[in-house]
Write a structure and sequence with these properties.
The chain is α/β, with parallel strands linked by helices. It is 30% helix and 23% strand. Helix 12 packs across helix 16 and helix 33 (1142-1154) packs parallel to helix 37. The longest helix has 29 residues, at 514-542.
Length: 1442
């Protein structure tokens, strides 16, 4: 769904005094009068009943087209084209609009009806999706407005555009041609529908007309007239006449031409009316006979003849009917419309001109008759199936209960059994069991204090945490006194959770009226109809549901789906540790990067160990002479990889590990430890697994450290890799620079060196850079195969060479733990014993620190209905005289931008007790108030705390500063001094509403606490706030960095003992999202710390970095230097701290830019000075500005300086919405300031119209990605052309299957075509997935995320259709799955019914492949739709494109 909209710049308007006593009459030449009594009038007085046989009579074709042409004969109407449509004209807008919550890309199109009537329509792209039940088909839409243009009389407009897109209409009117006179000639506007969004258009139509014109007459039913009276400005009302219409009202358009009105109210459309033009036979039907279907400028906007013409729009017509016209009141309205054609003679309905969708000419009476038949069908009580709906609610004053009772009444009247639950008196276990047995549910809530009650939150949490694959239809309702946020929150949360809505939300202000209660009863009926509709859909879909396999066979089905994956057969050649050639087959090969060129290859673990590990006999030795304990312990320490530190000591934990291993060895050896017995123990005894893990780890390190060189020999079609291995003949022309073997029968080869290696169980996944290559046969293709083919060949010929690529695979049908059974509950890979054996570096003599873990407190403030575990961990000694209080937020699932937290997070504070002074560094999040203060007061007497050092003022670290100052004052400590940077103290004045002692510090300033604890401060702005500073304790070597070097990772381990492999994914994601846009500031801060002897980094989030401190800090340096490499223009993003959602939208937009290697700088408008601005404008070409506060003189001044310092030739700009509503300067005005300097827009201004949801954030990130790709396009094209041609041709010989990868996360769905997907392990079952860093789907494919691989079928037309759909360009935020035949799998990702099989996977880890991410994921499920189908194969000629 497109999520953002540019805003039209303000236009000047004029006004005139209110015209008193204006008679409701039309402009000169037109009259409003009551009709004479004639046959037509008599027909209108017959009542609303329609004779049963009349519909059949009306189906007969009436030859009135000839009669209409006769009436038009002799008239000079240039717009009339009989029996043909005029040319469709497209009004090109300056930029395609994207409108959040109202659809996708929108264009204004003008066309003509064949009867002199002009049509203007806003066309919403077919991938557009506006929220509401009526848009569920996601087929786009049109908003139609019609214009009748008499020759000598005022023109008549029927319909109005809403406030999103009407400016395009006025742009069209300004162009040379007949449209220019529209405003002057217009005399009437007829409104058939009103929801408030039309006011801006009506105002503009009134006020932009020339002053000399007569007042514009606006016609509508009484509800519309009253609404306009209340909403139009005085200036507009002074220049218009509001004229109510009745059933017998007539409007004379010109001599002999009179429009007739029929008021046709329904429950959903109480203001509805239709307008009939007997002269042309056109019925302007408003919402009646509409359809939501996009009709672009390339398609004529009417239906076609015959059965095909009906079927083209039948589904869309019925869906629209199904949403609006399902009640008896709607049936009565439809019958009133039929009465227009009841007379035996006279004008007939020839054409339906609805508000949305196609004009109906060929199927006019068929559609009208269908409406009658459909309503009759709706009115019949079904009762065919015993259905049950859960009605649950909480009610403060009885109003919400009244709504629930009315809905239950409607359900019961439709034959549905109702289970009604008052949440105030019901345990959540009852809610869960009721949900499990019902067919649908409705949930109601009052709004108390701006939110829903706790009971409703808990029930919503039960609903959202349900593991059911099928999302039940739902509805929401509630009462309120002032604002009604609870219903909105319920609506959005259920929508994001994927629950289909059965009816639009129902809201009642205070006591529900009779009309609202009637609406509730109709909603109950609507729910019943929704259940029937879903049942029919389910029955139709069962025959082709890929997920129809029984749950018991999921492992077998997943294995079968896995077996369909195809990849290239190769022979790998390298050298082992002895320098001898090692040659073996591999077939799990894929390209993995462009710049530099790279590949992934999964090789059997046994082959990997053989190549890179020293034989156990060489390590242990041989012989039966017994070893003493000291020699055996030394041997064990070597094999287990335990390193000693200074003084030859090891940590207590490592000593414990070594002692346990020695006990196992004693048991295996029976007390006598000879080399032979030790060798047996480590080979097949109690120590075999532990030693194997250590050896594998050493081999992985050796592969990456030594950049293991190898060659991939590509096997030509018709050959098998095993055949080449059996005949090792060197190629005469194959001369790789790395000296590895090139096979004589290979048709191409590439030479590579390993960059990354990861253990995947029975295989090792390598990412290697390609250094060179050559093609020997331009016509040959690489043989592609599946592991099923390989296993079959192996079973037929036992003497064939071992298929090393598959290791010791389980049988094809074997179930058990060949799937992801070895992952932890958290979704992270199970950590090998040696990974936890790393030592803690000595910060000081600890003597064993004392830890105190608090009780768990539950918190419910983030996601409604979900409970979060909060806990504090107090550690008395993390360094000399230093302790920490870690606030453990175990379950936090999202953070300050688009983070989806897999392992929660922590907020860390530290206490340093010098001999003279005591300092507290940072506090915690305010939700930890009780837990944190309790732990703090146990650790230190607040009366004796001298300094509160504030690293920066982000609320998760400073949320309890005011409370700490208050508690200190209670015990007499009024001298507690807050220490911070200049900007920090400025910010604190707006956060702490009390006087406090303060001390501003700068770079190099020091505070001596005594006892060697001299604290030195480093100002480190923009990491990631402008007020950030580091604190270094010279006494302990601890660097306190707050957000920098942190990660969102919650565990009871104080330090980084889990190891780099476990923590790096969390560390790198944190860096990418928060620090990468500030890479320049990272480098500057690191330079300032170069003189420090840093022994540990004490971060604000995650563990202290003590084990691999230097490595972690080097990563920041390397990543930041790489980010600063010049690739295309640089971008500066100016945001506003502590204001609306400015930081969030700025950071996701920045992440999109940095994902494309654009250099980004982020600056806070509240803190940047004029000198810094001058430097930034010199460095950066793209200026991204978040809307500033209207009341902030500092931010407004900064904006002024930015605008004044721009250059037309150099700079382009983008304006982002800070989402602060009336507190911010409007987006349009900020953009206007840049446009007045004649600066070009890099993107249209981006404004959020509604709530800032994950979908909106996805749209911001995709917009940043699109801009980044645009900025770097030329440079990347040059780099691609610079790739060695032989290498590119050889790399292109790697073939693979074709897939569509889908994922869902936080309510956002995504999909993409992929071919760089290969198997990566058999036990557990795993695959590798490679995705470009600048792909819009990348945020949904991070460690811990789930996705689905849909395997496309060779030779199936559906494959081409899917490829065509998913390879098209999509606007930012558009749901790629709209209009695609699919269903949601257990992991929430889409399963495509056009695929032949699918695999559900979860990402365990990922590798950095330069311009791509390489993910290793374990397969957790899957199924096969067509067992005999083969996967589609993708062959390329060169490796510089996908």
């Amino acid at each position: 769904m497109p999520l953002l909209r540019p805003v039209a710049l303000p236009a000047s308007v004029t006004s005139t005094p209110w015209l008193e006593g204006q008679r409701p009459a039309g402009p000169a030449g037109c009259s409003l009068a009551q009709p004479q009594q004639h046959a037509w009038g008599a027909a209108l007085s017959l009542g609303t009943g329609l004779p049963v046989g009349l519909a059949a009579v009306l189906l007969s074709a009436r030859a009135s087209r000839r009669r209409r042409e006769k009436n038009l004969a002799g008239r000079d109407i240039s717009d009339v084209q009989r029996c043909a449509w005029g040319p469709v004209q497209l009004s090109h807008v300056s930029a395609t609009k994207s409108i959040f919550d109202e659809g996708g890309a929108v264009q204004m199109v003008q066309g003509r009806l064949p009867n002199g009537i002009a049509q203007f329509r806003n066309v919403y792209a077919d991938q557009a999706s506006r929220y509401g039940e009526e848009f569920d088909l996601n087929a786009g839409s049109t908003d139609n407005v019609y214009l009748i243009k008499p020759k000598n009389d005022p023109w008549v407009m029927i319909g109005a555009f809403d406030d999103n897109c009407f400016e395009e209409f006025f742009d069209l009117l300004k162009r040379p041609g007949p449209n220019r006179s529209t405003l002057a000639n217009l005399g009437h506007i007829i409104l058939q529908f009103f929801d408030g969004k039309q006011v801006a258009f009506i105002e503009a139509m009134i006020l932009r007309r020339p002053i000399r014109c007569e007042p514009l007459t606006v016609h509508g039913t009484m509800p519309i007239i009253l609404a306009l009276q209340n909403n139009l400005s005085d200036a507009a009302k002074a220049r218009c006449v509001l004229s109510p219409i009745k059933n017998k009202t007539r409007l004379q358009v010109e001599e002999g031409r009179v429009l007739k009105f029929v008021i046709s109210p329904t429950l959903k459309l109480p203001e509805a009316s239709v307008v009939f033009d007997p002269q042309t036979g056109t019925l302007f039907s408003g919402k009646f006979f509409s359809a939501h279907r996009t009709i672009p400028n390339t398609v004529k906007p009417f239906d076609n003849k015959g059965a095909a013409g009906w079927e083209e729009y039948a589904v869309d017509w019925y869906h629209f009917f199904d949403v609006y016209f399902f009640t008896r009141r709607a049936q009565a309205a439809i019958r009133k419309i039929f009465l227009l054609a009841e007379a035996l003679t006279g004008p007939d309905v020839e054409c339906l001109a609805p508000m949305h969708g196609p004009v109906v000419r060929e199927n006019t009476w068929k559609l009208m008759a269908k409406y009658e038949a459909w309503t009759e069908q709706k009115m019949r009580k079904e009762g065919r199936r015993d259905r049950e709906v859960l009605v649950m609610y909480a009610s403060a004053y009885g109003n919400t209960k009244a709504l629930a009772t009315a809905i239950a009444r409607g359900l019961s009247s439709a034959g549905v059994r109702v289970n009604e639950i008052n949440l105030e008196h019901c345990p959540m276990s009852d809610v869960a069991s009721s949900l499990a047995s019902c067919d649908g549910f409705v949930i109601g809530s009052p709004t108390l204090g701006g939110e829903m009650p706790t009971q409703v939150k808990e029930a919503l949490g039960v609903v959202l945490s349900s593991n059911s694959e099928e999302k039940l239809p739902c509805g929401v309702f509630g009462s309120f006194g002032w604002s009604g946020e609870a219903v909105n929150e319920l609506q959005f949360r259920l929508k994001d959770g994927g629950f289909p809505s059965a009816f639009d939300p129902i809201r009642s202000k205070f006591t529900p009226t009779a009309e609202v209660l009637s609406q509730c009863e109709e909603a109950g009926v609507r729910m019943s109809q929704k259940l029937d509709s879903l049942l029919v859909q389910k029955r139709r879909g069962q025959a082709r549901n890929v997920a129809g396999a029984k749950a018991a066979s999921v492992n077998n089905m997943a294995m079968e789906a896995f077996g369909k994956m195809k990849s290239s057969q190769c022979v790998m050649s390298t050298q082992d540790k002895k320098g001898e050639a090692a040659i073996f087959p591999v077939s799990w090969v894929s390209q993995a990067s462009f710049q530099p060129p790279g590949v992934t290859v999964a090789i059997p673990g046994s082959e990997f160990d053989r190549v890179l590990s020293t034989g156990l006999e060489e390590v242990v030795g041989t012989g039966d002479s017994a070893l003493d304990r000291e020699a055996a312990m030394a041997l064990l320490q070597s094999m287990l990889g335990i390193q000693t530190h200074e003084g030859g000591e090891i940590s207590p934990k490592q000593q414990e590990q070594l002692d346990e291993a020695y006990k196992t060895l004693e048991q295996d050896c029976g007390g006598e430890m000879s080399p032979d017995k030790i060798l047996k123990s480590v080979s097949s005894g109690g120590l075999s697994s532990q030693v194997a893990n250590i050896r594998r780890s050493s081999a992985l390190d050796a592969a990456t450290t030594d950049k293991l060189p190898f060659v991939l020999n590509m096997v030509p079609e018709g050959k098998q890799a095993g055949e080449l291995v059996a005949k090792q003949v060197a190629h005469k022309k194959g001369k790789p620079s790395n000296g590895c073997f090139v096979h004589a029968e290979a048709h191409a080869f590439i030479e590579c060196s390993v960059v990354h290696a990861v253990d995947t169980g029975d295989h090792v996944l390598l990412y290697a850079e390609v250094k060179g290559g050559k093609v020997f046969d331009d016509l040959a293709r690489t043989s592609v195969t599946t592991f099923v083919d390989k296993l079959a060949k192996k079973s037929k010929k036992e003497k064939a060479p071992a298929l090393a690529a598959f290791g010791d695979s389980p049988a094809l049908g074997q179930s058990g733990n060949c799937f992801a059974g070895s992952t932890l509950a958290t979704g992270m890979p199970s950590v090998r014993p040696h990974q936890r054996s790393a030592s803690r570096m000595g910060l000081a003599a600890k003597g064993g620190e004392a830890e105190e873990l608090s009780e768990i407190k539950m918190w419910t403030g983030l996601t409604p209905g979900k409970e979060y575990r909060l806990q504090t961990l107090k550690v008395d000694s993390v360094a000399a005289d230093t302790s920490t209080i870690r606030s453990l937020d175990w379950d936090r699932d999202r953070f300050d931008i688009e983070f989806a937290l897999e392992r929660g997070t922590t907020y860390n504070a530290y206490v340093i007790k010098g001999s003279e002074k005591t300092a507290l560094i940072d506090t915690s999040h305010e939700k930890f108030e009780g837990l944190f203060l309790d732990a703090l007061q146990k650790e230190v007497d607040l009366a004796k705390v001298d300094y509160l050092i504030v690293s920066h003022t982000e609320p998760d670290h400073s949320g309890l500063i005011a409370k700490v100052l208050e508690e200190a004052a209670k015990v007499g400590n009024e001298s507690l001094t807050v220490v911070g940077s200049k900007v920090c103290l400025q910010f604190l004045e707006n956060l702490v509403f009390r006087d406090f002692q303060k001390q501003q510090v700068g770079n190099g300033d020091k505070i001596d606490l005594g006892g060697g604890h001299e604290l030195e401060f480093v100002i480190a702005p923009n990491l990631h706030w402008p007020d950030t500073m580091f604190t270094f304790d010279h006494g302990t070597g601890v660097l306190y960095t707050c957000d920098a070097f942190g990660m969102h990772y919650c565990s009871k381990d104080l330090e980084d003992v889990e190891g780099v492999a476990e923590l790096k994914p969390h560390y790198s994601l944190y860096y990418d999202c928060l620090m990468k846009p500030n890479s320049r500031s990272v480098i500057t801060a690191l330079k300032k710390t170069e003189g420090f002897e840093v022994k540990a980094v004490a971060t604000g989030h995650g563990p202290m970095l003590t084990v691999s401190t230097a490595e972690w800090m080097e990563m920041y340096k390397t990543w930041s230097e790489k980010a600063l490499e010049k690739v295309g223009p640089s971008a500066a993003i100016f945001w506003v701290s502590n204001f609306g959602q400015s930081e969030r939208v700025a950071q996701v937009f920045a992440h999109g830019l940095t994902s494309t290697s654009v250099n980004v700088e982020m600056w806070d408008l509240n803190a940047v000075d004029a000198f810094e601005l001058t430097e930034v404008l010199h460095r950066c070409e793209i200026l991204v500005v978040c809307t500033p506060p209207t009341e902030s003189k500092v931010a407004q001044k900064a904006i002024g300086n930015i605008v004044a310092g721009t250059s037309v030739k150099k700079h382009r700009f983008v304006v982002l919405d800070s989402c602060a509503e009336e507190l911010q300067e409007p987006v349009a005005l900020v953009a206007q300031r840049f446009l007045e300097q004649e600066l070009a827009e890099a993107l249209p201004p981006m404004q959020v119209k509604s709530k800032l949801t994950p979908q909106v954030l996805q749209g911001f990130e995709e917009a940043g990605l699109n801009l980044g790709r645009q900025l770097t396009q030329k440079e990347k094209a040059v780099a691609a052309r610079g790739t060695d041609k032989d290498l590119a041709k050889a790399l292109g010989r790697i073939g693979s299957s074709l897939y569509v990868v889908t994922a869902a996360k936080l309510g956002v769905r995504h999909a993409m075509v992929a071919s760089w997907v290969t198997p990566a392990s058999m036990s557990p079952l795993g695959i590798s997935l490679t995705i470009a860093k600048d792909r819009a789907m990348e945020p949904l494919l991070r460690v811990g995320d789930s996705f689905t691989v849909n395997i496309l079928e060779e030779g199936n037309p559906a494959t081409l259709q899917l490829m065509k759909h998913f390879l098209q360009r999509f606007a930012p935020g558009v749901d790629r799955l709209d209009g695609v035949d699919q269903f949601a799998g257990p992991n929430g990702a889409a399963v495509l019914r056009g695929a032949c099989a699918y695999l559900e996977c979860k990402i365990i880890t990922r590798l950095d492949g330069s311009d791509h991410w390489i993910s290793y994921a374990e397969v957790v499920g899957g199924s096969v739709a067509r067992p005999d189908a083969e996967a589609a194969v993708h062959h390329r000629k060169v490796g510089t494109y996908y």
